[in-house]
Amino acid sequence: MRYHIGDLEEQRLLDLYTGMLKPRMIEEKMLILLRQGKISKWFSGIGQEAISVGVTQALKESEYILPMHRNLGVFTSRNIPLNRLFAQWQGKQSGFTQGRDRSFHFGTQEYKIVGMISHLGPQLGVADGIALADMLRRKKRVTAVFTGEGATSEGDFHEALNVASVWNLPVLFCIENNGYGLSTPTNEQYNCETLADRAKGYGMESRVIDGNNILEVYSKIDELCKAIRRRPRPVLVEFKTFRMRGHEEASGTKYVPEKLMKEWGKKDPIANYEAFLLDKGVLTFEKIEQLKASISEEINVNLELAFEESPVSFNETKELNEVYQEFDYQEINTNSEVKNIRFVDAISEGLEQSMYRHNELIIMGQDIADYGGVFKITEGFVPKFGKSRVRNTPICESGIVSAAMGLSINGMKAVVEMQFADFVSSGFNPIVNYLAKVHYRWNEKADVVVRMPCGGGVGAGPFHSQTNEAWFTKTPGLKVVYPSSPYDAKGLLNTAINDPNPVLFFEHKGLYRSVYGDVPTDYYTLPFGKANVLREGKSITVVTYGAGVHWASEILDKNPEIEADLLDLRTLQPLDIEAVFASVKKTGKLIILQEDTLFGGIASDISAMVMEECFPYLDAPVKRVGSLETPVPFAKALEENYLPKKRFEQVLLELYAY
Ligand SMILES: Cc1ncc(C[n+]2csc(CCOP(=O)(O)OP(=O)(O)O)c2C)c(N)n1
């Protein structure tokens, strides 16, 4: 291995050596503990230390770094206290996730580290968002993100690179090409000569670096970082290296040819560098022994601390309370004049006033800038807020939701407009796995609102008509809002944007231009978790939300003999179940109407809860009405009968007569 010292100072040469020695020694200790059954799983980075250590030392402490499962050297180079790291691996309270997530799956704002989620790819988009926030604030910073060569096959990799290039974001994308993705060799993973070549397709610079040569890694990355800080832009770096142990310890390396192991064994980044430093007189055998003794002492002392700590204890209230970030809701009322406006205008107004209120609120979505979005919600926003805050995006929902997560991590707020709620399926993974779980896992907020133009009755067929709120009400960590009136839409959207938790905000397209209402012209907020009692009656409770509110009102108008309580839920998570209970206790009969197909929807859960809590008060079985169990059909005659409006009237009359 050839080393070029260049103008590196002796202290740096030593720091790089010690930097690599520490994760190697920790790993060697962990492998012993693993064999003794004292820790559970281990993903080894032995032989790859030069990459983690070289990159982290080239970054400034204020710059975010997003490591993977083999990047122990990132954590140690940022000087994370080892007792906390060990406690994390043992699932203990003083770890970074209080026993809620394992291994390297955590982040810490204190050390500007944002750990991976198991799904690998999403963090590449998160890096985009972090870098975007730095760029918008004109901070000359680099964000470095890691991926293995295996995960470069995920769509998230391509989306993140493309977005970074189109937006010219200062992201250093680091591919650690270690030959295998679990057992899959590179020739079964991709079919190009080097992965760095992919950069060309995205209009981006790239480099190939010998990942086992610490001086090459450090010098080239240092140079690149300085260049990116001067002139922000993304760069793709492929580090050539090798995975010297199994994917994780239990899985072994039988499928790896012995010859490759031998070849790469000779390229060990630490042994070679150590020999070089000894040769140059920068290191001596005594110095090495001293360093090893001191690291060994540090490891042992901190391991003892972690082992001494008792296992985490379960506290149900604490677990439940820490899924969401606490939100201090501020009621803002207004005495301003009211105007009779459409549903669509109310949303636009709320969004615009929130943009004035929060200087660091960024809106992202397809065609939302000059074009104003397909529903024209953001029409006229660009002259007021500029294209840096009203951002057109490429068609890549997953990448953009991840970028929104990154903006939030770096202290900004984001609203993402799904062009149609149906397309959220392409951004599903980061919503349910990243945004929803991040607070519970490592106490980080996901200050993101995803706007969801949804719903049927508009003759738009199976891919532009769904109301898919049940995909999200199922997932702890998300809030789900579903207004039915212009007044609610504006007030609840403002609250959604103030709330630091991830909010799915459903906007029924059928209501956009058909429903009018009186709406204060000034900014105001409405609380989550408070159902609206729209009419009161003693004989039956009707619970619904969204377009269902209008259908139910129309049918109750048509049947004035039915004296009904009509409850508009307004938010589904949090759900005002108490309001439902109170009404059912009064009326003794409940019918729940939802536009979504019936099975597994919110109506089923409300029905179950009412059965459990109000059984003695019920005079009839609880009734649920929803759409047919089919995709949403296109032709009018089919869609009319798919939707539940007609069936609702029939079931309502039957229940009334029961
Ligand atoms: C979406 C997803 N698919 C599959 C897996 C299982 N898995 C975890 S790591 C891994 C291999 C990753 O290979 P690579 O990206 O090259 O990283 P390396 O482990 O080699 O460092 C696989 C298949 C996963 N965690 N997430």
Automatic annotation (TrEMBL):
Signal peptide: none annotated. Residues 341-514 form the Transketolase-like pyrimidine-binding domain. The keyword Membrane does not apply. It comes from the Bacteria. CDD domains: TPP_E1_PDC_ADC_BCADC, TPP_PYR_E1-PDHc-beta_like. Its cofactor is thiamine diphosphate. Keywords: Oxidoreductase, Thiamine pyrophosphate. InterPro entries: DH_E1, THDP-binding, Transketo_C/PFOR_II, Transketolase-like_Pyr-bd, Transketolase_C. The keyword Oxidoreductase applies. One of its GO terms (molecular function) is oxidoreductase activity, acting on the aldehyde or oxo group of donors, disulfide as acceptor. E1 component of the 2-oxoglutarate dehydrogenase (OGDH) complex which catalyzes the decarboxylation of 2-oxoglutarate, the first step in the conversion of 2-oxoglutarate to succinyl-CoA and CO(2). PANTHER family: PYRUVATE DEHYDROGENASE E1 COMPONENT BETA SUBUNIT (PTHR43257), PYRUVATE DEHYDROGENASE E1 COMPONENT SUBUNIT BETA (PTHR43257:SF2). This is Dehydrogenase. It comes from Flagellimonas aequoris.
